[in-house]
Amino acid sequence: MSRDWKTVLDEHEKVIGGLRDSEHVLAHIVEEVVNCLRAGRRVYTLGNGGSAADAQHIACELLGRFKLDRLAQAAIAISTDSSTLTAIANDLGYDQIFSRQLEGLLQTGDVVWLLSTSGNSPNVINAANTARTYGATLIGFTGGTGGELEPLCHLTFKVPHKSSDRIQEAHALAYHYICERVEAELA
User: Fold this and answer.
1) Predicted confidence band at 2 (pLDDT cuts at 50, 70, 90)?
2) Which of 55, 83, 90, 144 is close enough to 47 for a disulfide, judged by CB 3.0 to 4.6 Å?
3) Are 67 and 76 in contact (CB under 8 A)?
4) pLDDT confidence tier of residue 138, bands split at 50, 70 and 90
5) Which ranges of 39-79 does DSSP label H, i.e. alpha helix?
6) Counting Cβ atoms within 10 Å, is residue 20 exposed (0-12), middle (13-18) or buried (19+)?
7) 157 near 30, Cβ under 8 Å?
8) Which CATH architecture has domain 22-186?
9) Is the model's pLDDT at 1 over the cut of 80?
10) Which residue from 163, 157, 62, 162 is spatially nearest to 115, judged by alpha carbons?
11) Residues with Cβ < 8 Å from 158, sequence gap 6 or more?
12) Phi/psi of residue 140, each to 5°?
């Protein structure tokens, strides 16, 4: 099925327009991330596929630089180390690739930012359960109904759509907004 550009653009605009009431949850996410980083804690990001790319993007905006020259912030995408991911997947199972890393890295007060367009990825759900046991703050980015992930998270940005491409476009807009606000607070 091939759709014309106007149809795709109209769908995108409808999804983005449906996020106007998200300011409250985004403000709370900014507050949690800022508090975590000010306390000397870390932000861990994770996801699968395109969400892994988004997790990496978030971490680089916080660790490196977004728009302002400022100190680096402690942010780590745990979906990027191929040796660790493949070793854990081989030895313990793919559903443990994130939770096992969190077991070794997490400390109370850290933030774990979990991205899953369906909210039902078993490895992301396992990571959320592990993060809760370590006293981390869980931020979920999901779509549709929120899946199993939403009730596990302290804060959830949920895009009201079922298609992963539209959800990820909205996620990118929201995480750029969050990174801009966090950077302004910490600059």
Assistant:
1) confident
2) 55
3) no
4) very high
5) 50-63
6) exposed
7) no
8) 3-Layer(aba) Sandwich (3.40)
9) no
10) 157
11) 140, 142, 143, 144, 146, 150
12) -105, 140
